[in-house]
Write a structure and sequence with these properties.
With 765 residues, the chain is mostly helical. The chain has a domain at 438-557. It is 68% helix and 1% strand. A two-stranded antiparallel ribbon has the order 1-2. Strands 3-4 form a two-stranded parallel sheet. β1 (239-240) and β2 form a beta hairpin. α9 (191-198) packs antiparallel against α10, α10 (201-234) packs antiparallel against α27 and α11 (248-298) packs across α14. The longest helix has 52 residues, at 397-448.
């Protein structure tokens, strides 16, 4: 085992050495291009500004002009030739290693045919614990987190978004000892296959089709988009060989192509070996970005930083102190800027360093911690095909349990390299995130002026709190325009105009804070949502803009890379880690999608298909899934989806609560009747859809909780009726595929992970 670990970290050290060998002096890239303070004078005590003062927004015309000017200026290559070579060598080398390790040179053609589907889809059921652990993390932590989760943390949610990671650590421990033994006992290839093993064929087919549709259309497309988002932000304005690398579609094509190639050739085994390197490199790369961001924060102008301070943090220009090059000074500034009690509303109205948020929070209310947040966690880590496929490929139950607990430990580290950098991105580069949103706003304005797009329909502007805060004049004008188009009553119009007048007066007062301004903003946003609801419900007769936002939070991590890393010698390493991670996650999803299509759908239709035929069909299915996801991905750049992380999590709700209930009853309630296998999934999908339409304001985690409780109650009713009728318990046979001896070491480390998670929640309560 020690030799194995030495090989892993030796390879990682070699990659790190390549970065250090070319590392030069770090350029003085002050936040948001602020001039560097060579010898800052002491800040007088009387110079105290209120936290989170709001600067007036640039009008749309200026945004259009800025966009045109930026596109006209020639851009220098963001990577040096040496960095480009290092990037390509590492990416191609690791992918080639994965393909090479997926093939056994001593294996005969007959042996390959005998293994067939098991070898391609489940790596021959031979993965050891360290491969399982790193592979779980690499498959999970992708640009979905680095783009979506860091974007959410840059917004008002802050550290609370880390709940997905830290609760996942506890979830993984439970999965290792409660879910995995049941699944390995059944010797299944896929998660839906267990439903046939426990319930019936209809339950398996329904789960397989729903999983395949959601897997390809939501997380797979989402990961392609998220990876392309980093590429497009970093390479904004840069073209080579006539290709605009700042185009989101170009990034989508590059990422989808690379992932498809090596999973097509090597299957799950190729994914697992590349995951080993990308998983470790990703954690190091995120740590590097966090380090440079904290260093930059320590040297930033306090007059700039105060704009991003939480309104109730108590931070002032004087309290932030003079700029310095001390890392610890950056840490203290980080806590000072983002402290304060958690509060609902627009960004920085309250502190961001809390895991517990108010009950009326739109994203993660504290009530979600009681049940809602656990549902997607248990579904994702225990019943998600592209995650659990690694554990189903474990050499034994003990190896699988050790691998899962190892992954749980790594999950505790992730928020410090993903969530914290997102918060820092807003502190440092608030204006850059705003400019990204202004470019999108300018594009929307151009669409409203295009007769071919509008088709003579009245234009309706969809506004958000953040847009109104940053664009007071434009936001109020759009809200009043909407009211005029919808022909609201005199009382509503008077109320709206008064709210706009109050907001403008407040914006003109330099002494007001965001906390004082938030009620005016929320009133206008609420009135606007009610006014435009008939238009939203009847969108064929109106031209609805995309949702207008004040900041493009999904560009937070990409902005950090673009601003902090050039010239440090680390750019190629972090980009390679991110690129490898997204390709790794995407490859895992495509492999899982092809596995479900082949084993749960095709193999049921053609029961006599041989191993070679199944592998061939799996490869064809993989290509089809890749094309579908690639077609969807570029459209996710629209603000209408509310951020990539929301898009992925919310749409999983149509399946996850019901599926989790069905599996829990299948695992632990032997007398639950077989009909519940498909009925629970159908009831959940219908109920979730009804709540989404009738209660759109309800946080999606609370919708999940309502659906879960409803399906659980129905499950107990069916079980009670079945027991009353004399129904016999269903005994699941052991198919003898792998050894089912549990790991005592994994249990000890599992309890340590749970204790560490509780401690982190106490610290960031």
């Amino acid at each position: 085992m020690m030799k194995t670990l030495a090989t892993i970290f030796g390879a990682l050290a070699l990659m790190t050495w390549g970065a250090a060998a070319q590392e030069g002096p770090v350029p003085a890239t002050a936040a948001d291009a602020q001039p560097a303070l060579a010898a800052p004078a002491a800040i007088p005590a009387v110079e105290v500004q209120p936290a989170a003062e709001i600067q007036p927004a640039a009008p749309a015309a200026e945004a259009v002009q800025a966009e045109q000017t930026a596109s006209a200026e020639p851009k220098t290559a963001p990577l040096s030739m040496v960095e480009v070579i290092l990037f390509c060598v590492v990416v191609v080398g690791v992918i080639a290693l994965g393909i090479w390790k997926s093939r056994d040179p001593e294996e005969t053609e007959e042996e390959k045919k005998a293994k067939g589907a098991s070898d391609y889809f489940l790596a021959g059921r031979g993965l050891t614990w360290w491969l399982v652990g790193f592979s779980l993390i690499a498959a999970n932590i992708s640009t979905e987190q680095f783009v979506g989760m860091s974007g959410k943390s840059a917004n008002w949610v802050g550290m609370a978004i880390a709940g997905y990671e830290w609760l996942a650590a506890i979830t993984l421990v439970v999965v290792a000892f409660c879910f995995l033994p049941k699944l390995l006992k059944g010797g299944v290839y896929t998660i839906p296959e267990f439903l046939e093993y426990r319930y019936n064929t209809l339950a398996r087919s329904l789960m397989a089709i729903a999983t395949l549709l959601i897997l390809v259309g939501v997380p797979t497309a989402g990961v392609i988009y998220a990876g392309a988002k980093v590429i497009s932000v970093f390479f904004t304005g840069y073209s080579a060989m006539g290709i605009d690398f700042g185009d989101i579609t170009v990034g989508c094509v590059i990422i989808a192509f690379c992932a498809t190639v090596y999973v097509f050739v090597g299957g799950l085994k190729a994914c697992a070996w590349t995951d080993l390197f990308w998983g470790a490199a990703l954690i190091v790369g995120g740590g590097v970005v966090a380090y440079f961001a904290l260093t930059e924060l320590s040297g930033a102008d306090p007059n700039h930083l105060i704009q991003s301070a939480a309104a109730n943090s108590g931070a002032t220009v004087a309290s932030l102190g003079n700029p310095s090059d001390s890392l610890w000074h950056g840490v203290t500034r980080f806590f000072e800027l983002n402290s304060g009690d958690a509060a609902s509303g627009v960004n920085t109205v309250g502190g961001k360093l809390h895991m517990i948020r108010p009950a009326d929070d739109a994203e993660i209310p504290w009530t979600a911690l009681c049940l809602g947040l656990w549902i997607p966690n248990f579904f994702y880590w225990g019943l998600n095909q592209y995650i659990m496929q690694r554990t189903l490929a474990s050499k034994s139950l003990a190896e699988g349990q050790m691998g899962i607990v190892f992954a749980a430990f790594l999950k505790l580290i992730i928020p410090f390299v993903v969530v914290v950098p997102g918060i820092l991105a807003y502190n440092l580069y608030r204006n850059d995130l705003k400019e990204q949103a202004e470019v999108k706003y300018a594009a929307e304005i151009r669409k409203t002026e295009d007769p071919a797009a509008v088709k003579g329909r009245p234009v309706i502007y969809k506004l958000t709190d953040s847009f109104l805060v940053e664009n007071v004049e434009e936001g109020c004008a759009h809200a009043i325009h909407n009211a005029e188009v919808m022909k609201v009553g005199e009382d509503v119009m008077a109320n709206l105009k008064q709210a706009c007048a109050d907001l403008k007066a407040d914006a003109a007062n330099d002494q007001t804070t965001l906390a004082e301004r938030a009620p005016f903003v929320e009133k206008i946003a609420s009135l606007n949502n009610k006014i435009i609801k008939p238009a939203v419900d009847n969108s064929d007769n109106y031209y609805l803009t995309d949702t207008l936002v004040g900041f493009d939070y999904d560009s937070a991590f990409g902005t950090l890379i673009r601003k902090l890393l050039p010239g440090t010698g680390w750019t190629w390493f972090v980009l390679a880690a991110l690129f490898g991670a997204v390709v790794s996650s995407l490859a895992s999803m495509l492999n899982s999608a092809s596995t479900i299509f082949t084993m749960d759908i095709y193999n049921k239709l053609r029961k006599n298909a041989g191993p070679t035929e199944l592998v061939t069909v799996g490869k064809i299915g993989l290509l089809v899934c890749a094309v579908i996801a690639l077609t969807i991905a570029p459209f996710l750049d629209s603000p209408a989806f509310g951020g990539i992380f929301n898009f992925i999590q919310e749409f999983q709700g149509f399946l996850s609560p019901g599926a989790l209930c069905v599996f829990l009853f299948g695992f632990f309630v032997p007398k639950c009747p077989r009909i519940f296998g498909w009925l629970g999934i159908v009831i959940n999908a219908l109920l979730y859809g009804i709540l989404k339409v009738w209660q759109p304001e309800m946080a999606f985690l609370n919708r999940m909780a309502v659906c879960f409780i409803t399906v659980v109650v129905i499950g107990f009713i069916f079980t009670a009726v079945n027991a009353a009728r004399g129904g016999q318990p269903i005994v699941l046979p052991d198919r003898g595929v792998v050894a089912l001896q549990s790991s005592s070491r994994a249990k000890i480390f599992g309890w340590l992970v749970v204790a560490a998670t509780v401690a982190l929640y106490i610290i960031f309560w």
